[in-house]
Amino acid sequence: MAEPTIAPESNPLREALPRSRAPEPCALVLFGATGDLAHRKLVPALFNLYRGGNLPAECAVVCFGRRDWTDDDLRREYEKSLSKDGGPDFAQVWPEFAQRLVFAAGTFDDAESFANLKKKLEDLDRTHGTKGNRIFYLAVAPEFFEQIMEQLGGAGLVYDWQQDAPWSRVVIEKPFGHDLESARALSRSTARVLDESQVYRIDHYLGKETVQNILAFRFGNSIFEPIWNRRHVASVQITVAEEVGMAGGRGAYYETAGAIRDMVQNHMMQLLSLVAMEPPVDLSADAVRNEKVKVLQALPRWSPEDVYKNVVRAQYAAGSIEGEDVPGYLQEKGVAADSRTSPYVAIRLQLNNWRWAGVPFFLRTGKRLPKRATEIAIQFRRPPTELFDADAESEDESAGNQLVLRIQPNEGASLTFAAKIPGSRRRLQEVRMDFRYGTAFAAPPPEAYERLLLDVMLGDPTLFTRTDEVENAWRFITSILDAWNLPDAPPPDSYVAGSWGPEAADRLVKADGASWRRL
Ligand code: BG6
Question: Which of 204, 367, 449 to mutate to test the pocket of ligand 1 (most atoms within 8 A of CB)?
Fold first, then answer.
């Protein structure tokens, strides 16, 4: 039986969780506990949740791994990495949290390891009061997903949802497949063991406060929605720019992904869905995800020629960022000298639906760009007639009305509009209204993983990707990948590291009379 979705009153945009939404006792099993994600994000997020009083006292974190470790070895290891940024109360909180960290030795291909895990979890139900509730977090390479899920099923570690009975949920980290076919195969094998309501596919962008705020901005106000459509919007730009390259040995992974799989298929498709979706009937998980999936269904169906016309891929050449010389993509460790994989992608697309027909959406993402910045810019149409004199003294061409949602950094939003320059002439100048999270709200937003882990414990899947979202995004992305794989596909363009991307990307938007924002 499927777990019911969260009721409308469990509004995911609410600041503080009411007491009644405190998570139930549970054990969280971490596969990949010695990996980078667990060290940098997951265990710190669990620790912070515990420190903030957001985890139940009856909880346990079971780290499953190959090593020959005791619980104390595990605790020492994490104490070392967490104490670096532990905060003033670390020494006080750590010993309590550490009591809840447990090691389970085992390998993914060994049924006995999972039988032992089951026994360990039953022991924890007795010693830590975890009440049979389980979360399995698969922070592992995707080739292990199916194997682990089969083992969980085989050992009787996941069970169907029943009213007032213990529950089990599985969290999966991207990538969910590497193209449409493999994504469908993964959905099928997941469905053999789990009900969709038990699967939590993480896209950490959805855990970002500013990403959730896109919905609040659009549907918690009445002034934006009437103009959020083709009649008033000239174009939409979504940028996810990063300074980082392939540091930390990421080259080999990137060769299998490129920006199209690493950033566009997931994070950028999520941003696009939230910006372009219709209002949901309420904020329940399915209502929100139903509307998001409709946007992905409205993505264009492209021939290879359409792909070559509307998508630019590029690799960075050696350059410098903030005064530091950096190598080109092809010189990065783990990258083939003749690689065609691209750490930069720009896309021009239109959504085939009533609200957006004819409005170009420009998406770009890349590594080794001049700065880290994620934003969404809505460009409104110009007034139908020009009554005022243009600002002849300004060097910049006027951008007209533009609404920019800054996802990171300097989280906030700004609206540019024209104001009359004081004086006897009728000249206008662009001015800006600005909202900043940092000044409007006292408390810094929680880390994305804290929010998402808490939602898994609460059984709220709103901010997780449903299988039909994944597949519809892959359908579009796979048409691009297929075109790039053809023998006559144009090779990737090039840009100097530290610049804003290739010239071909400028030409892509120029055709619509637009230009990329200089952030
Ligand atoms: C990850 C990608 O999902 O997101 C990385 O694999 C990327 O390549 C990262 O750097 C960006 O996340 P954020 O939160 O820093 O914008």
Answer: 204
